Structures are given as structure tokens and as C-alpha cells.
Amino acid sequence: MASPAAGLVVIVGSGLIGRSWAMLFASGGFKVKLYDIEQQQITNALENIRKEIKLLEQLGALKGTLSAEQQLSLITGCSNIQEAVEGAMHIQECVPENLEVKKEIFAQLDGIVGDDVVLSSSTSCLLPSRLFSGLAHVKQCLVAHPDGIVSPSDLDLVMSDGLGLRYAFMGPLETMHLNAEGMLSYCNRYGEGMKCVLKTFGPIPEFSGSTVEKVHQAMCVKVPDDPEHLAARRQWRDACLMRLARLKSQMPSQ
User: Fold this and answer.
1) 98-108 residue pLDDT tens
2) Which of 74, 135, 100, 104 is nearest to 12 (CA)?
3) What residues contact 8, with CB distance under 8 A and at least 6 apart?
4) 0.90 exceeded by the pTM?
């Protein structure tokens, strides 16, 4: 666990993504300052975070080794960006997925931070070269999303421990609907970014050759492809599905 003395993390933007980052850093023991331009937005975000962390503790799902109250004591708010970044070692930008808005934020940060602060963006679709171009502290900038190649096992983990958990109860459209203030809000925020990603897909890949062999080898590290191991893993999978089905049957309908 990181000590609070390790430094301050600043979250720029107190929406859904900003609140999630704040909770994640606090679970690791970091002091977190949540910045937004509107004080009421900060107040609402802190109250939301308190409810979420308390609920996670009640469910036994709270990350880290600190209690809910210990984690909550690490998170504060600030509506003045210059005061917010004072003493920061890491700044996580979480404003809407709009190139000009993000560039404006990073230009502002560029003028007030020192040479030892990490400037990180939560962008899902915008290229770092477009976000950080012309900044004096460009060498300190990064995107806090997988920005390259991930292993097959990591990709599976993203689904099994991430999106897959909610997909057991709701589909991708409802997930999008709830990840913003409704579907219209989601598409307004991320529509252009999604279009940019789709344009990069290129030709349909061949499902053969060296790429498939690498994926196969990675999968075999977890589950060897001999009949005994495959059968045991299938049995484990089916048992998990049955337990999940029982859980879903006990859940109140919405």
C-alpha cells in the first residue's frame, strides 16, 4: 500500500470517470484532491464517492487494505486549479471526451506545474500527439489507458473482472446508458471518438498463422490444451454459470 506521504494525486473533473479514479487512488493509500470548476459539482461528487465506498465496504468488495473511513479521509475537493495542483505528483485529467476541452486543460496545467509531475489523460480515443502537442512538459504526459499491445490473458481479465461482470445482468446498450446521463449523453460525449476508432479497424484479420499461435500459447499457460485440463476447466466454467444463474434468479427484477 502506498503511503499518503508518497505524494498527492489530483483528479481534474468530478464526473463518473473522475470519481472512479479518485476511489482507485484512495484505495491505494494516496491523498486525492478532486478538482472541478463548480463547487456544487465537487460536493455532489464527494457525496457520491462516500456512498459508493461505504456500499463497497458493506458488500466486502472494497479495494485495498484501508477501511472506508480511512479512504474517504484521503479525498478532498478544490475549485481552484492552481491550489489543487500544489504539491501534486500525478494529475489525472477526466474532462469530457472533447479534443479542444482537453487541450485547454493541459495548456492550463502546462503553465502551472513543475518538471516532476505526471500529466495523465483518461481519453479513450484521442491521440496523445494531438492532446499534448506544443506543451513545454510534453515528456511528462501520458494516456492512462492501454496504448499499445496487451497480452491475451490481460485482455481476458479486462472482460472477466471488468465489463463481463455487468454484462451478466445488462447488455452493452444499457451499460452505455448508465455510463453517462442516458444514451444521448453518452453518444454526445463519445460518438466522435467511437467513429475515429471504427475507422482504424482496417481489413478483417486472418485467424491463422503466428498471431493465433501466440494467443494459443498464452491461453495454454492458464489452461493446457490436453483433454484433462480442458475438461476440468469446462467443469469449473459450468459450475460458475450455474451459481451465477442462481444468483440472477434471486435478484429483484427492475
Assistant:
1) 899 999 999 99
2) 104
3) 30, 31, 32, 33, 87, 88, 89, 90
4) no
